[in-house]
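**Protein of interest**
===
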Amino acid sequence: MTRLEQLVKELPPELHRAAEDFLESLLAKRSRKRKEALKLDWRGGLRDLRDRYTSVELQHKAQEWWGD
């Protein structure tokens, strides 16, 4: 018997449906697919700043510009 099976058996009957709903939601979340491909049109947007900042400094600057 697996650990999951053991835990389910220990649940009171009124919680079996809640556990089943939770497991179904995990499976649904896993199987969701993106509706469109991820766009990378922003790539290279900070190229003009690479001589002034390191990559880590650029990450910090970007966070400042986004307003945390």
Observations:
- The helical segments are 3-10, 13-31, 55-66.
- The longest helix spans residues 13-31.
- The two ends are 48 Å apart (CA to CA).
